[in-house]
Design brief:
- This protein is α+β, with helices and mostly antiparallel strands.
- The protein contains 4 helices and 7 strands.
- A 4-stranded antiparallel sheet has the order 1-4-3-2.
- It is elongated, with a radius of gyration of 21 Å.
- The protein starts with 21 loop residues before the first strand and ends with a helix.
Length: 184
């Protein structure tokens, strides 16, 4: 079982769908940096907002089905409530634990995935442009998503959510400075 301090790494390396993003061998043992702890809260809030319509739909479904079947009242809602609590409490923590990054002098490594692990490295020489995005939930928790766009097909973007806004801006400027230095 994973602890909050560990981030799983993939056991095998699979060829990247994006030629600009290179997969890393499992022997690349550079320490990964965990995302900001507020990212768990943002994921939980998002999960809660997703679960509310499902619970309302379950309540409506149960009110209709109880009149027509011998199913006791509360069974459907009890099951949905337990599943929603797992979805709101456990899944965001697992997603947080399964993500990490490492920014070195010439590349950005992003590790993510619970069922399907992805360990992607983007050399700064391949970067076309960089975005820092914030949605309303991220803005509330002072988080941002760093998006690194590389030359290539529709898989040419690498997303790194859960960064502190100031850190995301600093990372963007560091990568931008490296790109500027390479093009001169």
């Amino acid at each position: 079982m994973d602890t909050p301090d560990t981030i799983p790494t993939p056991a095998t390396s699979v060829p990247a769908a994006n030629p600009a993003a290179q997969e890393v061998s499992p022997h690349d043992d550079a320490a990964l940096t965990q995302l900001h702890t507020n990212y768990v809260h943002a994921l939980r809030l998002t999960a809660m907002l997703t679960a509310i319509p499902v619970l309302i739909g379950g309540l409506v479904f149960e009110s209709v089905i109880v009149e027509e079947t011998p199913i006791p009242a509360g069974v459907v809602m009890s099951v949905l409530l337990v599943l929603s609590l797992i979805f709101i409490i456990r899944v965001p923590m697992r997603r947080f634990q399964a993500r990490g990054y490492n920014m070195s002098a010439d590349r950005l490594r992003v590790v993510r995935g619970i069922l399907w692990n992805s360990d992607t490295v983007v050399p700064f020489g391949r970067v076309q442009h960089i975005d820092v995005d914030q949605g309303p939930i991220e803005r509330f928790f002072d988080l941002a998503t760093l998006t690194v766009h590389t030359a290539g097909s529709h898989n040419a973007s690498v997303y790194l959510p859960g960064l502190n806004k100031a850190l995301a801006d600093d990372m963007r400027e560091d990568i931008r400075a490296h790109i500027k230095r390479d093009t001169m």
